[in-house]
Write a structure and sequence with these properties.
Blueprint (H helix, E strand, L loop, with lengths): L12 H10 L13 E6 L3 H12 L4 E5 L5 H6 L1 H18 L15 H15 L5 H6 L2 E5 L2 E5 L2 E4 L2 E10 L3 E3 L27 E5 L3 H13 L2 E6 L10 H13 L3 E4 L1 E9 L2 E8 L2 E7 L1 E4 L3 E3 L13 E2 L2 E2 L12 E3 L10 H16 L13 E3 L4 E6 L10 E6 L4 H6 L5 E6 L5 E8 L2 H13 L4 H4 L11 H13 L3 H14 L1
Parallel strand pairs: 1-2, 1-6, 2-3, 6-18, 8-9, 8-14, 9-10
Antiparallel strand pairs: 4-5, 5-6, 7-15, 11-12, 12-13, 16-17, 19-20, 20-23, 21-22, 22-23
Helix pairs in contact: 1-5, 2-9, 4-5, 4-7, 7-8
Length: 501
């Protein structure tokens, strides 16, 4: 049985339906049909987009998946986590209903029902990524472990598949940090946490990045006592500092105990309890919990592929590729989490599209040309794209507009947040950070502006419905225009107005 089956628990009707699509128990691999234009290893987002896109253009395509089609996104990432985020937000809205004049005398989170809803939705989405869907789109699907034999052949469970070009899209898995006693405590990861059927009364979360922050807040809102450990002095250490401050405050309001600067972590067990000890900013701390969730980085899935044997270089971050996503073997490409710092579903999709053109049609598209946004689905959300900091040489400037001055935010009672837009001297957008209820939706307009070189001055001309949070972008355009009103320009305008009187 595939190792990926272990993450699909319990074996209820929803999960059995899921497995029937993403790894059918009775599936028989096809006989290879000669040499393929493209063989894709990995059936997550990157692999699926590569395979389906190439087949749609007439290429002869095979896809190989060791575990579950759909990859992390469907089975242990975006889909299940955002289902829980939505349930947690509903619980939070009920809890604060009194702020809006709505009296709710009592509410209860039915964790078993929350998890069943998640499993139901995951199963409903699964057919799109399933075996039958791929076969109907012209892709030969092979389920099993892949291993390069040479630069033109891949072995799949004893069957040889030959190719003109190959793509490595094997993704990543959760890293287990070297914490004494952690492995013996059988911690949860993103691959197993969605199999819970009972709410942990006390949950320790190791890692204060996007996954750790999202799930810490979710479980706190469900009613768990949550303690989060992050080695950096601040939450979300790779993100905008002002944004991480707001997100940390939101988590703490929801009851999350944040232990920043956590060093010398060690785990022991006593009876049915797990005990986490650490030094948090120089202060010794000890916390008892029922479950530990690890969200402390990712490791590339490359060990079984024999990449060294075909001259494909790998480092601790994954497969090495150039700007065209070609590996050190000219016939082999890579895309998705296994080869990029942007470990997001939408980034995997975008990179896969580049690979199709470059591998099959002499394309020359570059990954560096992409403006890739990302979002963290805490509440409020945090979304970013491009550069963030001011340039010391003065070539970059940043405009900030706070939600406290935005009517829709005031009406919704969610005024903690902001938008920062970094731009050049001509007002062209170089990057942005948004902290707001729906920041992930708002960042898309910024990406379009960046892709088409729409300046902040032009954004000021865009008409948005009132009242909406998207008006923040127009306000940033207004603020930029004010910077253009220099003393000399103001003096000239005064002369014109005087002459016009």
């Amino acid at each position: 049985m595939s190792a990926g089956h272990d993450m699909i628990w319990p074996r209820d009707a929803h999960n059995l339906a899921l497995l029937s699509h993403v790894h059918p128990a009775d599936y028989v691999n096809p006989m290879p049909q000669g040499r393929y234009n493209l063989v894709v290893i990995g059936g997550g987002t990157a692999g699926l987009v590569c395979a389906v896109g190439a087949a749609g253009l007439g290429a002869k395509v095979a896809l190989i998946e060791r575990d579950l089609l759909g990859g992390d996104c469907l089975n242990a990432g975006c889909v299940p986590s955002k289902a829980l985020v939505r349930s947690a937000r509903a619980a939070h809205e009920v809890k604060r209903a009194g702020e809006f004049g709505v009296r709710v005398t009592a509410h209860e989170v039915d964790f078993a029902a929350v998890m069943e809803r998640m499993r139901s939705l995951r199963a409903r989405i699964a057919p799109v990524d399933g075996v039958e869907s791929l076969r109907q789109k012209g892709v030969d699907v092979f389920l099993g472990a892949a291993r390069f034999v040479d630069s033109a052949t891949i072995d799949v469970e004893g069957t040889r598949v030959s190719f003109a070009r190959a793509v490595i899209a094997t993704g990543t898995r959760a890293a287990l940090p070297e914490v004494p006693g952690l492995a013996d405590a059988q911690p949860l990861t993103n691959e197993t946490v969605f199999g819970l059927t009972e709410l942990p009364r006390r949950l320790a979360v190791i890692g204060g990045g996007p996954i750790g922050a999202e799930l810490a807040q979710v479980f706190a809102r469900f009613g768990s006592t949550v303690t989060l450990y992050e080695v950096s002095p601040r939450l979300l250490p790779r993100e905008d500092a002002d944004a991480s401050t707001i997100i940390r405050a939101a988590l703490e309001r929801d009851g999350v105990q944040c232990r920043m600067g956590a060093r010398n972590l060690r785990v022991t067990q006593l009876g049915g309890e797990k005990i986490v000890n650490c030094d948090s900013l120089g202060v010794a701390a000890e916390d008892r919990c029922d479950q530990i969730l690890v969200a402390a980085g990712r490791l590339p899935n490359v060990e079984e592929l024999n990449l060294e044997g075909v001259g494909v270089r790998v480092d601790r971050h994954g497969v090495q590729v150039n700007d065209y996503l070609r590996t050190t073997n000219a016939r082999i490409f890579a895309c998705g989490d296994v080869c990029t710092q942007y470990k997001f579903t939408h980034a995997a999709d975008a990179l896969a599209r580049i690979v199709i053109g470059n591998a099959l049609f002499f394309g020359s598209d570059k990954a560096s040309a992409l403006n890739i946004p990302w979002a963290i689905y805490t509440n409020p959300e945090l979304a970013q794209v491009g550069v963030r900091a001011n340039d010391e040489e003065g070539k970059r400037q940043t405009i900030r507009f706070d939600l406290a001055h935005q009517d829709r935010a005031l009406l919704d009672g969610v005024t903690e947040g902001f938008i920062k837009v970094t731009h050049d001297r001509r007002g062209h957008i170089l990057g942005a950070t948004i902290v707001a209820e729906h920041a992930g939706e708002l960042i898309g307009e910024v990406v379009v502006a960046m892709n088409h070189r729409v300046s902040l001055s032009h954004l000021a001309n865009a008409i948005h419905p009132y009242p909406t949070q998207s008006e923040m972008l127009k306000r940033c355009g207004d603020l930029y225009r004010r910077t253009m009103l220099t003393p000399s320009v103001a003096k000239l305008l005064q002369k014109v107005l005087k002459w016009r009187r």
